[in-house]
Amino acid sequence: MAREQRGSDLRVGAVRVRTDAYTQYAVTYRSNGLKISGIMNVPRGDGPFPALVLAHGYIDPDIYTTGRGMPREQDVLARGGYVVLHTDYRNHAGSDDDPDNDVNLRLGYTEDVINAVHALRSASRPNVDDGRIGLLGRSMGGGVVYNALVVAPGLVDAAAVYAPVSSRPEENIDRFQRPEGDPLVEEIEAAHGTPRENPEFWRQVSPVTYVDRVTEPLLVHHGTADDTCPLAWTRATVAAFEAAGKDVELRTYRGEGHTFGPRWADSMDVTMSFFDRHLR
């Protein structure tokens, strides 16, 4: 929150895909001095089109390739008339490395999403309406969106998340990293202390602590059969938003798991209607 976020120099590179509805380009931009890679889908036509920045879930950076997260969403949203900028994050694909990112709870990903919005605005592209921008995150990317909303209130017009992680980082560590014996846990706790040793750090690094700062409407999707990110995490976060008087809506999907199956198309209809209300 205290750090100035600087996103700029959006560069549109080679065409990756052409469809009947949009063209996909390789892109890079600067995020607090780091080069970040990604892809951008631009609908056919003159525009200007509203834009969405996508924050993908966890994929091992060693196997990750540019634009790999959320391909279904990238396609549907672009066909619906949105410019879609999907960030790879630092330490992924063609992005620059940040050796301190993991020990600092991957907060660099939050900077990269915030700065993707700034880069879109600074580019002044005629086919992008930089006054109408939203965020969409999935799983880990849902947590990134939570962070962005509390770090930079007013940055965007609306946000949606799918099957998000906990808004308390210690719960994510206890579920995903500690049981696997991830050596990074020891590094994190050596740098910042455990939640018991340094509760103030862990309170301050949790987006749920700052929900009173949020100004944007938030839509949350979660399946009742999600065995990766428990629905209870989302219910607790949504309750905190509601207690703070924020504009939040939770949609649950009976029987859907973490990645969504039969109800995914229905959920995207809801998402499109949500963004159409707030960005058009």
Describe the structure.
The protein is of the alpha/beta class and 280 residues long. The protein has 8 helices and 9 strands. It has helices spanning 71-79, 107-123, 140-151, 169-177, 183-192, 199-204, 231-243, 264-279; strands spanning 7-18, 22-31, 34-43, 49-55, 83-87, 128-138, 158-162, 218-223, 248-253. It has a 9-stranded mixed β-sheet, sandwiched between helices. Strand 6 (128-138), helix 3 (140-151) and strand 7 form a beta-alpha-beta unit. Helix 2 crosses helix 3. It is globular, with a radius of gyration of 18 Å. The model has no long low-confidence stretch (mean pLDDT 97). Keywords: Hydrolase. It comes from Streptomyces chartreusis. GO terms for molecular function: carboxylic ester hydrolase activity; serine-type peptidase activity.
Structural class comes to: alpha/beta
The CATH architecture: 3-Layer(aba) Sandwich
Q: What is the arithmetic mean of pLDDT? A: 97
Name the beta content range. 25-35%
Spans of at least 5 consecutive residues whose pLDDT stays below 50 are none
The count of domains is 1
Distance between the terminal alpha carbons, to the nearest Å? 29 Å
CATH topology: Rossmann fold
Give the total of beta strands.
Answer: 9
Give the C-alpha Rg. Answer: 18 Å
CATH superfamily: Alpha/Beta hydrolase fold, catalytic domain
Shape designation: globular
Succession of helices and strands: EEEEHEHEHEHHHEHEH
Organism: Streptomyces chartreusis
Family: Belongs to the AB hydrolase superfamily.
Keywords: Hydrolase
GO molecular function: carboxylic ester hydrolase activity; serine-type peptidase activity
